[in-house]
Amino acid sequence: QVQLVESGGGLVQPGGSLRLSCTVSGRSFSPYVMGWYRQAPGKEREWVARITTAGSTRYPDSVKGRFTISRDNTKNTVYLQMSSLESEDAAVYYCNFFFDPVPWGQGTQVTVSS
Fold it and tell me: For residue 29, is pLDDT > 90?
């Protein structure tokens, strides 16, 4: 059974930084494009970053230049470094296989507030 376990969320002030982690078990990790997503209250889930097996990355304009996705295939882990956080970034953050999604994990809560 594939499991996605996100961690690293918390409370941060506007302009601050956080690093999220997502560890995958139950499926070979390295051949897949991985993505980070978020869902704010009352809004649909949206993707915020993706990374190919070779390390090529893409971001929507809303986070470009502020978020950086990376992966460690030896640890089956994908990371999301977030900086210059804004109130609009507050959400529950999830990871998943970008083109072959599996059931979502619990996510990790990011709160941006002074």
Answer: no
